[in-house]
Design a protein that fits this description.
about 170 residues; Nuclear Transport Factor 2, Chain: A; five-stranded antiparallel β-sheet; about 35% helix
């Protein structure tokens, strides 16, 4: 008896699903909308993804082969400053980017890493990142701007009066 009831239930569900879909009134997205890279919709998601791709300095974000990643994560101005530092620093010299910009350090031993919630004001946002590097507590603020391509990092602000745009804007 249980098998008969279970079989009837399974059959009724299988028959009802197409009718339920037809009555929802939800039009499926056209295929062209589903193709291409997804636009990252939250500022903190951009920052988390940048750290994931960066892989504690073993990624290629801040290297010449990372040009596409620079364009993906940073707004046009900051991506251009990073690229300029990488490509126009004289051979054998160290450019302005002589540290890991995501940790504001040359040497890292990261613990208690946390990406905070974004504070959004219009088309701009700030995402705080906190962690321990060795025994020092560090807080970095990521400034983002909402573009047609989604949220992009426009600056990274360190403690004191230091930020990545200022550092990269200095003459080589």
């Amino acid at each position: 008896m249980r098998k008969a009831i279970l079989s009837l239930f399974v059959i009724s569900c299988a028959v009802a699903v197409p009718f339920a879909r037809a009555q929802t009134g939800i039009t499926p997205l056209p295929k062209e909308k589903l193709e291409g890279p997804p636009v990252i919709s939250f500022p903190e998601t951009v920052v988390k993804e940048l750290y994931r791709v960066h892989k504690n300095g073993y990624g290629h974000v801040f290297e010449k082969q990372g040009r596409k990643l620079q364009q993906k994560f940073f707004d046009q101005k900051l991506a251009a400053l990073i690229w300029k530092d990488l490509t126009q620093t004289p051979e054998g010299e160290v450019g302005n980017l002589d540290f890991d910009p995501l940790y504001n350090a040359q040497d890292t031993q990261i613990k208690s890493f946390r990406v905070g919630a974004s504070a959004i004001k219009g088309d701009t946002a700030t995402v705080p990142v906190t962690f321990m590097n060795y025994d020092q507590k560090v807080k970095i603020d990521f400034r983002l701007v909402n573009t047609k391509a989604g949220w992009k990092i426009s600056n990274i602000v360190y403690s004191g009066d230091s930020d990545l745009v200022k550092i990269l804007s200095q003459p080589l």
